[in-house]
Amino acid sequence: MASSNDNKSTEGGFQDGNSDPNDEETNELCPGFKDVDAFVKYGLGAVLSATKASAGLPQAGDDYDFYRSFPGFQEFCESQGDKLLHLMSQIMQHHGCRSHMRDRNKLTGLEERFDLVVDSNDTILERAGILLDEADGVNRSQQPVMPAGFQPPKIVVSSWNRKGSGSGSRPETFRLLHAKNVARPQLKFKEKVDNSNTPFIPKIFIKPNATKPLPSYFTNKQIRKERPEDLDVPAALADFIHQQRTQEHVEDMFAHPYQYELDHFTTPENLLSKPEVQMYKPMAETKCSFIDTLEDLVALNEKLCKLSEFAVDLEHHSYRSFLGLTCLMQISTREEDFIIDTLELRSEMYILNEAFTDPATVKVFHGADSDIEWLQKDFGLYVVNLFDTHQASRALNLARHSLDHLLKHFCNVDSDKRYQLADWRIRPLPDEMVQYARTDTHYLLYIYDSMRAQLLEFHHGQPGLLQSVWNKSKDISLKKYLKPIFTEESYLELQRKQKKSFNTQQLTAFRLLFAWRDKLARQEDESTGYVLPTHMMSKISEELPKEPQGIIACCNPVPPLVRQQVNELHLLVQQAREMPLLKVSKDGCQQWAYVLSVLFGPHDTSRISAAFLKELETKSDQTSLSVAHMKASRIIESFENPFRMYLPPSDVHINKNAKFDPSSKIFEVNKLHLLSYHMSNHMFAKERNKAKQSYQESLQNVATVRQQAAVSGGKKRERVASEVGESTPKPSKKLMKSADKPQKTEPPSQESFTPFDYSQSDLSVFAGSSFVFFLCKFKHANMLTFFLIIIILYRGFRHNWPKR
Ligand code: AMP
Ligand code: MN
Ligand code: ZN
User: Polar residues bias located where (predicted)?
Assistant: First the structure.
């Protein structure tokens, strides 16, 4: 098997430590290890070899099923699996984490167990972080809130832990390179970062290698930027004029600037025939230049334009910034390596578009999906003629598709991925990090040659397979960066992953904290994980602490912004506590949230009528959940979307990104909550089907529930409609009280749903918010157009929607 040669125990900087393995976790000297370093070295080596061994196992989908057909293999896997689960359970219990890892028969699937592991990892890492800090003499509880621009010492990046593929050594190695006080690079940026809750608009304003010229919207960008000053009219009028102008450009604004060129790009013949494989130069004999001036960047661009290919990689930082920062670009030609300080040259990087979009020059990346987005987000850079070695690795069906595997496979180079998660903002860059960064591109052109040769060999000289890799690479270069958009449903998506049963109060707390965190993260330009890690947010929601001190107790270590705003957070929790208490089952959470949002408008569960909830509760025989479910389903049913017949069958899943892509029609529909309405329908399709029978039997009953809902909720809907868009709901006892009084008015109709209006939002403190007005214009579009859009859209996208 191809992967068997990867099964060696240790490599790189890690060597086996002293003799005796000792599992006891301690930051003190322990038996068998003469000092902490020896223990750490041993530990890292062990973790690394375990990770390697696990990666060497036949992968699911590939050879796994075949091996699985041998009883010996099956038995071995099962016994090892049990052992591992047992060990994991023990560790988790030792740390006081929830653990039912071994409970194989439980209905809860792999996903829940995965979440359990992630939670436990977070807890354990945090604990380790605290202990290490204590050993360092850092006392967290006395830590002052840092002035803007400075970073408090050492915080474990737990959110990365989530994404990681299970390499236990990563967090530790990250820590090794975590600088204590990195100045915020954002402060030096010439153009301020735009964290506003508005869609991303490409940064491009000059388009080299264009066959279709850049739309005037972008070429006039410089003029447009000066709008507020150059228009000698009141601000509101200036805004209006600006909107009128921008409105003409809606389509252009959200299109891929090189869509036309990419659509018309065909891979040149010579790139589809047998390549001459050119060996890489030894790294030690290769010149490496660090580029941090405009002059050098211009010279580099000129050099690149003359080449037929070069390799590119990026390093990115995402913890102390909302949208993330591209910190480094590595470029390798056949002769030289270049490391570009993209924090320094951020505003000048666009000049590389000349080389990057030149169809005559191949740009080789490994796993370019994120890189393509980061290039657009930070520099307005695009790639025409991309070759992605990750895609080639897939086509060749290699055992693994990571860069370190390719380096080993093709170059017999042992790479050391330790620095992958280092803090790439550090300046000056330590030598070892420069070396690491170079390795990411230095060998890539040779790998590109070798892979092309193999792809042709594989198909006996026929270019089909190679062509498919070029095509897949082109698809990646067509990817568009989409900014994270805060919507009414965002919190539900996250809550669903928590797999915790929340009652109405807890769910409300989660919703309010989520909005607080999003707003603050945008405002302070921090990641949401830095402001308040999800597991802490979940814990606060779960415990609903009565005192501010209780909130602090839910967080360990306490994030600086939580400490600073603990009173604000306390008010939010209090507001949640004032919600009528109703138990909600695990999968009922979304259902309830949905019912609440349908009846009382998005983001407005705080105004829910206690009477209504009580009525539901008492009528359902002592909070019998299944009955409550039924009722919820009936209510949903009674609000059945009249346009359902136009919607796709309930088993299609909607591409998540399309929601945030203004050029996709889904975005428009989403803004109108038509889509969210459908999605919720889809989410509850199963329950609804079950409920359908009983619904039909009890049509009259449904009418009653509906009327009652209308009676208690109707009037509030009206008022709510004028208040939606409050992105950070302020605690409002007054509203809560008035919500208790039943009021009489018309039943809530579907047409009265009000979309989340960003223009009303507190987030308008951010730049660019005026842009949202034109989005709201969509509201007035003819309903018929919408139905058409929905039909076309769902037909068009259907094949793209992965099944659940
Ligand atoms: P690479 O292409 O491997 O050099 O990775 C580029 C950037 O992606 C790194 O600088 C990290 O910011 C990010 N990254 C890579 N791997 C991971 C990971 N496992 N988890 C989170 N971020 C990652
Ligand atoms: Mn990369
Ligand atoms: Zn890299």
Answer: 1-20
